[in-house]
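task queued by scheduler; priority normal; single chain, no ligands, no partner chains; default sampling; output format set to structure tokens
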Amino acid sequence: MNLTIKEARHLIIGSQFFTDTKLNNGKKDLLKIIEHLGYIQIDTISVVERSHNHILWSRMPHYKRSMLSELVENDRSVFEYWSHAAAFLPMRDFRFSLIRKKNYREKYSRWGKANKKVINFVYDRIKNEGALQSKDFVDKRASSAGWWEWKPSKDALDFLFHQGKLMIAGRRGFQKVYDLTERVLPDSIDTRFPDEKEFYEHLIMNSINSNGLVLEKEITYLRKYNRPLFKKALSELLEEGKILKAVVKGLAAEYYTTKEKLELLNQKKIRSEIHILSPFDNLIIQRKRLKDFFAFDYTIECYVPEAKRKFGYYCMPVLYGDEFIGKIDAKADRANKTFIIKNIFWEGKVKHEKLLQSKIKKLAHYCGCEIISGKA
């Protein structure tokens, strides 16, 4: 299959749900979005809004933070674990987290044996007392300098969580609440350990479903994997007709997609809307892909030394239709209910200032701000 860049963009944007205007009614639709995207990245930075809330709000204008909490804590249809980074994941995909948990246990088995006492202490407390946070564990240790607070139990919590004995039952003030896996996991969830073939097929189909078309290296982004077995899984899916190869004009690489994804090309065009995206949004997380398809060069500069920043600490991409038209450096000052626009950087001559101002107002309101100051 041969595609133009424009067609490729259509597949990508359409697959990221920016063409769907119906998914905005409640938790059921929110779960559909999370299941479709495969993961929603969690990050501690909240200069504008927590990444997971921003990502979901971008796709669901009526999204409320309480909806996600309810899916995690009440419905148990979403859980926290690890994708390429910390993320909210669909509970239906729980069994595919078991491989990483097994690998983690094996990799850190020596640490587990060396710290068995504190690990058992933490586990037994949660078993007997119920769900706890890291702040519920405070150990006093003596040193030559005198008494000081230290929390080895925090490491034990992380160890038990990553290896699968504990799950995050919810959050309080964004702080994790841990409980035994068997008390969090719904009885109906499939917990069969997947073999590598199943796991790779899951990765491939999930990636295509959420991104439209993908490279091998994009499917395995930030993951350790067995390349021969992965290639075998790709070949078998191709032979069965479950996936197809695609070539994009102007790009040398060979992409993978599906017949169902290609049908998006016959559907309505991308709506000409403005989206101010989180720097951790699923659409932009792979920067080379962003450059190849959208000719958009983007770096989140909060990790860049201040003297070397070009666009600001928390500069967010601005998408219009299927083009990135600029970046906006902003901050939500919730204490003063003020949304501060530090700078706006346009990519080209075509500007959509009125549309952007309207979107800024909506984002500011979502962040709890009533006043907009700066360059808007």
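post-processing summary
- The longest strand covers residues 323-333.
- Residues 11 and 263 are 9 Å apart (CA to CA).
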